[in-house]
Specification:
- The protein has 164 residues and is of the alpha/beta class.
- It has one domain: 2-Layer Sandwich (Nucleotidyltransferase, domain 5), CATH 3.30.420.
- The protein is 51% helix and 23% strand.
- It has five helices and five strands; from the N terminus they run βββαβαβααα.
- Strands 3-2-1-4-5 form a five-stranded mixed beta sheet.
- β2 and β3 (24-34) form a beta hairpin.
- α1 crosses α2 and α4 packs across α5 (139-163).
- It is globular.
Amino acid sequence: MRILGIDPGYAQTGWGVVDSIGQHNRPVSFGVIKTAPTMADNDRIHFIAKSIGEIALQQKIEICGMEDIFFTKNISSAIPVAKVIGATVHQLSLLNIEVRMYSPLSIKSAITGYGGADKKQIQEMVRILLGFEKIPKPDHAADALAAALCLAVFNATNMRMKTQ
């Protein structure tokens, strides 16, 4: 199964593609979609969603795992990210690609086994699980690969449960 992972952001949206067969995962490609602060808000959101759609088509994506929005104090900074998520989910739905949303806690737990893991621990596990020599850069791409791996872990667990 070819999985697209997404770490949504307004200035930078990370993406990562992983091939997953059972419990075996291998990296395919990853990167970041950047928008300039000089762009109009609607243009930024449209550019990100359109770019994700193009990546999905080029990479022959079957399913997508995306980090869900998380905010603590400043809801106004979460609103643009929520708009990016909505536009991206819409774009992928037009391509008949299912999107599964995962909380940061779910991603941390799936990747490290510990919901309180910090960013460096997650990135190190992404490096190990995908066989990279170094942690993938930039950080948003590593986070997107973590979202893809989270979906892969949940799928593998569901498959094991169905066969028991």
